């Protein structure tokens, strides 16, 4: 069964957790400290340092153009950190398989995740990678990768480059089509496909989970809420300029109450009234202000109509989202039934796979033991052969030694038993010594299995050719006759 690639993207991140700082991990029981040596830190740049490297020059350029001190940016990281609509760092967690089919001892999967990180910049030039950490020290988990990154987008207003997630994805070619296919979902799908291709290079049988329009009909609740929040943020972003412009006119009072004056009837005249001079002046000023501000008020009304239209669109979108949310709730029960069915089938398949793995493990163990035994036998046979060669050499040397002993004994025997010039008169003790040497040599050769040498000692006396050669060397040299000059 192919391994499933998991890819989760969010805004929660912790460098202390990722680098296994004890101040953060001392109370995290799911981490086994003795296994932390298996972790791999591919890249690790502190966030403030990263912001200075990325945005430092752009901040200086922006501040140099500002005449008002309150418009200058002291620290861009702090500015983003306190912006409710932005996040300083984003993090994705990537995993190949699970603890049942991968686990922590997975060297090929580690190498695939390292390749995925090395090719990040090539795939994501607008998502600046500041941290990449492979964890393999969670006993109940699986080897996985944390990628921390900062979105960097080119902008025409304000700083020339800014932290903007939507713009960064758009500048990488991703855009939102609908709630089921947002720019973020499209990007995540591309990243899964990239990791799947890398797995094929490492001969890892893996497949990425299918997205909307590619096998799945509905979003998960997490994807739905994320897409809804993304769409809401986009609508708010579109409405914000109109709201800001509208706020400029809030102080302008054009109501009837603003032009009220005290009225008094003129005595003896039913058609005329009297107005105090100061009220008349006030009325004139307000009328003049009204005429001066009339174009702006007309623009305001036009903007107000646009705002109302946008708000109506927002209400319509909210209504559609509400209907989709209700539909999602209706489908939960069906999905739950399907999930239980699939889970039961998966458990059965898992049990079968487990039995197959156990069988393969037994076969592998027996094969390994057999190979080890054959290797041991081969090693022992080689040792035996070497010992046999050594024994053969020793036997040859021993035979040579006894042949030498035989020759010496036979040569000594000539002092007593020969009929040539080597026979000499011996004392009784010398005679017994020669016989004792002959008897000892004969018995020793017979005990060691050299019966032929024993028989030769008993029946023959004489000088061997080797001893004769030695005698010739000892004989005096004859002097040559001649005249000396």
Can you walk through the features of this model?
- With 485 residues, the chain is an alpha+beta fold.
- 58% of the residues lie in helices and 10% in strands.
- It has helices at residues 15-18, 22-25, 47-64, 76-81, 107-118, 120-123, 165-171, 183-201, 221-247, 277-417, 428-447, 451-459, 465-474; strands at 3-10, 40-44, 90-96, 127-135, 144-151, 153-154, 161-162, 206-208, 264-265, 273-274.
- A hairpin with an 8-residue loop joins β4 and β5.
- α5 (107-118) packs across α8 (183-201).
CATH class of the domain at 1-216: Alpha Beta
- What is the number of helical segments per DSSP (H or I, 4+ residues)? 13
Question: How many DSSP E strands?
Answer: 10
Strand content: 5-15%
Structure, briefly:
By secondary structure, this protein is of the alpha+beta class. Helices cover about 60% and strands about 10% of the residues. It is built from 13 helices and 10 strands.
